[in-house]
Design brief:
Length: 98
């Protein structure tokens, strides 16, 4: 965790449990340039999570509800770009309806 010094003294964190390094890492991740999802590309689960910014649990829930189609190759889970785009478009439509 980052430490701040004033007059040679360490300042306590602003809030108990506050982690400035984690906040900075989160903001840096959000500020990364967006990557385009290519319809004919194949994305591994980690890639799909990174490119969309959504969590693993969100992907799993979408697959369980049959809103997102994934494919197994051995022990790895893959997604087609067009399936990701269709799913994200569906999420957008769901949010607009609410």
């Amino acid at each position: 965790m980052a430490e701040f010094y004033v007059g040679g003294h360490t300042l306590p964190p602003a809030f108990p449990g506050f982690d400035l390094d984690r906040l900075i890492a989160h903001l840096e991740a959000k500020l990364k340039p967006k990557q385009e999802i290519l319809p004919n590309a194949v994305y591994g689960r980690d890639e799909a999570i990174a490119i969309t910014g959504l969590s693993l649990s969100t992907f799993i829930r979408a697959e369980q509800k049959r809103k997102l189609k994934g494919r197994w190759e051995g022990r790895r889970r893959y997604y087609m770009g067009n399936d990701l785009l269709a799913w994200l478009k569906g999420k957008e439509d769901d949010n607009a309806a609410n």
